[in-house]
Amino acid sequence: MSSLMSNYGRFNVSFTHGEKAYLYDSNGGKYLDFASGISVTNLGHNFEPVTKAVCEQAKKVIHTSNLYEIEQQSILADKISKASFGGKLFFCNSGAEANEAAIKLARLYGNTIHHGKRYKIISMYNSFHGRTYATMGATAQEKIQKGFTPMPAFNQYIPFNDINALKQAVSLNDTCAIMLELFQGEGGVMPVDVEFLKEIRKICDEQDILMILDEVQTGYGRTGYLFAYELFGIEPDIMSLSKSIANGVPMGAVVAKDKAASLFTAGTHGSTFGGNPLACAAANAVIDEMMSNGFLDSVKEKGKKLKEYLNNNLPKECTIKGEGLLIGVKTPYIPKDVADCCLKNYLLIVPAGNNSVRLYPPLNICDDDLMKGAEIFVSVIKEMGV
Ligand SMILES: Cc1ncc(COP(=O)(O)O)c(C=O)c1O
Q: So where are the chain's domains?
């Protein structure tokens, strides 16, 4: 019997190593990776600049703690701030921790700037923000919260993309933040409506409410933009990042405009490991690659190509969603069954929500591998019998 807890429903395969868009199992099986560890290894496996940065840093020093200055952390913060909306950064180790920090900042803002009158955080049904108590509380899905109630009392939920519900929810004047994903990844790659997003931005500006964008899954090039908010012509007040920020070395980050960021003073928040030299070495190599000439344009191109192929070749019962290489496909089948059939055909994909799967190839995948994965996926769906 395993000594591991049973909290994961795992696929029956184990990988020994990876190279570019491929993972290899212990029996020599070679799998095309359109999962990327759920949009984590966005630069593929054993990506030379990241591997080199990690190995070199490991030989120097892996960890010192945030008791001391960490040069690589300051350099990374400058790069992300410059590439986003000029905010300040806090580093942690995961998406949930990044959202936890975002929620704490919002509560601090409500308590400090609005004298404790504003404490509620509005989030969306079908969202996913993590598994800690605060982030599970913001995750408005019964299946995630089941067995763990009562949730923290400061959460308020509205249907995604419902402007009337949004207006009603904020009318009570006790809202400190509105939190959302621009594409609900775990929820099935459901896109935000531009009008809904613009209304949130307007309300936040008018009422001094903080807009928190969870870009844990959508950020870092997946949509063909470094951050998905760039697609919509708005900027958040706070943004959470994680997953691909260090291409698989655990890391999370919160970027916040100074009006909120300045409230995190010494002793208000922290993390032992957050932004340690090893993770920062990997993350600096990742952002350098993603900001290099032509990188994001090539993601847009590949996304277009993949979507076009899927649109032309999948049965009409399927619906294709998403942007860039953040692709969701709604099928008539149980998502886990689709992923199982793909696995049997040496293609890794990710189930999403009740009726969709995610195709998340590495962003630097070559065209041949991209189309090979697309062909396997289409043939699997056809074999399943639509
Ligand atoms: C949008 C979003 N937010 C937060 C999280 C939680 O991240 P982590 O599992 O690193 O805590 C996820 C994970 O899938 C996510 O997709």
A: 15-47+294-384, 49-290
